[in-house]
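Input:
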Amino acid sequence: MARLEDMDEGLASFLRDWETPDVPGSAWVTPPPAGERRVALISSAGLKLPGDRPFSEGSNDYRAIPAERAGDVVMDHISVSHDRTGFHHDVNIVFPLERLQELAKEGVIGSVADFHYSFMGATNPNEMEAKARQLAGVMKADGVNTVVLAPV
Amino acid sequence: MSGLAKFLEDEGLATTLIALVRQQAEDVSPPRALWVPFPLGRPFGVPNDAPFQIRVLKSALALLDRSSGPILEDFPEDAPADPVADDGEGWVCPVNFPKPVAASEGEQLDRVLAEIQELAPWYEVSLGLRGRTTVGASGLKTEDAARYLASFAADMMTQSPLEGVAVADALRLSAEDIKAYYFEAATAQPGSGSPQAVLQWFWFETQAAELIRTLRDVCITSKDPAIFDVGDFMLVDTLGDTPAPGMTSG
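Output:
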């Protein structure tokens, strides 16, 4: 149903007319074999832990979520256009860390990172570049070599 | 997300992403993207359906085994019916509230506080069943979040109750917490309706929604651009902006 033709016309036309920012670059990294992949999850849902600083309109930074606190996240996204009822029932519909841990047990991936992250996705991605590059260094220090990104 | 993926890949990390709006992924062209045909807000399909969520996640991870890109692939399945709700047709919240009215400021707050109290047993059931809550973005108790919104709606000089948090953010987060509290409590009740039915109930049958609409009307008169924006597009969604059927005045 994230097909534009299935959406409310106001939202569909907003998304249709949205001028996607030009993000340069075409880097391609060959990941390690599946069993050696250490995976971090990044959501653009404006997730944070209760007590973390709030996101604001134009926020370009991220919040870090320790793996053991994934079940405690709350959503702090400025848009009211997306469904939140699924998230109220099950955090994995937006932030599927439990699923990622199950896949690590199955051997589909090597391991799950100790920390995961969220940005507030309504911000122009070019405004996030510096923080994203800084975050890449942080993730590498956690042994991460693979990242799954999920919107909201 | 697509832009972030490009920055991370450029820093040496392999990325794969879920895309909800296909056109945006086409335009930005990240290294690996899986488009999913699910509603906004549901990138992994449906709540409480681990096998389906696993299929989505595995499909995204499988793109990492390709030798070249960029890749934009379509997930072949639509989301199954939501297992946590029936079809919701005609669903009525068992906790029966008085018809919401355009009440005076004090009355409006009293009515919202009464609703919060009436829903409390079901919010507690929700906490017990789910073992978690999505209420907590503001850090305020739900009653205090309602008091803050009512207070700001009556007097725009009301300061943020949250240390170091701007008024605009405090308003938005308080409203989010109230919505989350109502949704969690409503959907913990037996025979809970579909998400759409619960949203209909919230926006058309609760005084809390009236309070949020009142707040919206106040915010859009603000000269502070951040507060104006909160009122303009961060409080009330398209459904909530539809004229409420059977609304009474007095």
